[in-house]
Amino acid sequence: MLPGQINVVPKPIEPERLAIDDYLTLGRIPISAAPTAEPLLFVVVDTEEEFDWNAPFSRESTSVRAMSQIGRLQRLLDTCGLKPTYVIDFPIASQPDGYRPLQEIRDDGRCDIGAHLHPWVNPPLSETVSGRNSFGCNLDAGLEFAKIERLRATIAEWLGFAPRVYKAGRYGFGVATARTLERLGFDVDLSINPRMDFRPVDGPSFDQFDAMPFFFGVERRLLEIPCTTDYTGWAGGAGPALHRFISRPALTRARVPGVMARLRVVNKVMLTPEGSTLAELVSLTRTLLRRGVRTFSLTLHSPSLSPGCTPYVRSERSLMDFLDRIKAYCEFFLGEVGGRGSTPLQFLASLNGRSAEEPVS
Predict the structure, then answer these.
(1) Which pTM was predicted?
(2) Do 164 and 186 touch, CB atoms closer than 8 A?
(3) pLDDT grade, residue 24 (50/70/90)?
(4) What's 6-228+271-352's CATH class?
(5) Which of 13, 195, 237, 356 has a CB 3.0–4.6 Å from the CB of 345, allowing a cystine?
């Protein structure tokens, strides 16, 4: 633990329920930071195959050619003194063109590697491929367990270690997912995306969560480090309700959310260079710092490093802008904010008073 920096406040254990927000109250220990705590920046890369984001999910989309570009991001982060965490899925973990670009980086101690589940391309492949089943938490609990177990074993086979960090693809995290992570020996989860409600596309809702990290678990203790997503704007505490109101289909079609964002009334922002401007990333960071948040996760998808693979980067010029935005934000955080780089495992180690290499028992 960091003396005078992190305050761990226990809650009583409650009976287990089915809803994920209820499940996560079981033995939940919120982690609050003192106002003087040094802000920490994690870089988390969803490291995955390329696929058409506008097409139906397909088992055949397993190309990992974009991994040839991962060095561009790594060199940028090296320059900033930041150690990313690459959460890798099965196509990356099972193909040499996917995992080999990461081996030397990890061997040099310049990155951590975790697990990332895309169910539709992760054996066993027994479920129907559909939008609903693209969320791991919607699968039969036994099947989701088998997929995550297979992914963990594949990473161990080809990279030589069992991953301790997990992030669900498409944020498909539920009660069965949490129990699986406990049973398979994971220590950190990165799946929760605060303020987001994926129920309209058959996914989970994290609308009631914020960006604060916490410990949870029934069989063993795990650390949750949520994505950094929240509301900004002068609407303040009324922002969430106002944003939900203006996000109704009719108002969305009329582009009301965009107008309200430009007027700085209310805007929902995720800390990612994908679809967020530098000004939005800076505004979100300053807003959350005022609210007492001291852990920030900058996230992106690895295929965005290859133009044309995601909607966020369509050309070499847009890729340069993308990388410049990452660099400018990191310089802002490490400079003006006075923060420093960290990793989920380093943060866990600081809370437990042990080496980042030691699993939590």
Answers:
(1) 0.91
(2) yes
(3) confident
(4) alpha beta
(5) 356
Q: Which residues contact residue 228 at a Cβ distance below 8 angstroms, ignoring those fewer than 6 apart? A: 194, 211, 270, 271, 284, 288, 293, 295, 296, 297, 298, 299
Are the CB atoms for 240 and 270 separated by under 8 Å? no
Residues in the chain: 361
Decide which of 125 and 35 is more confident: 125
Is 80 exceeded by the pLDDT of residue 13?
Answer: no
Mean pLDDT of 293-299: 98
Q: How far is CA 347 from CA 43, 280, 333, in A?
A: 13, 26, 17
Cα 282 to the chain's mean position, in Å? 19
Summarised one tens digit per residue, pLDDT across range 110-132 is 999 999 999 999 999 999 999 99
Q: Measured between alpha carbons, how far is 285 from 230 in angstroms, rounded to an integer?
A: 10
CATH 3.20.20.370 range(s) for the chain read 6-228+271-352
Separation CA 82–CA 79 (nearest Å): 8
Give alpha helix (H) positions in the chain.
20-23, 70-80, 90-94, 96-107, 141-159, 175-184, 239-246, 249-253, 256-262, 278-290, 316-334, 344-352
pLDDT reported for residue 360: 52
Phi/psi at 339 (nearest 5 deg)?
-90, 180
Nearest Cα to Cα of residue 113 among 75, 151, 78, 87: 87
∠ CA 134-122-108, nearest 5°, is 115
Across residues 267-278, what is the average pLDDT? Answer: 96
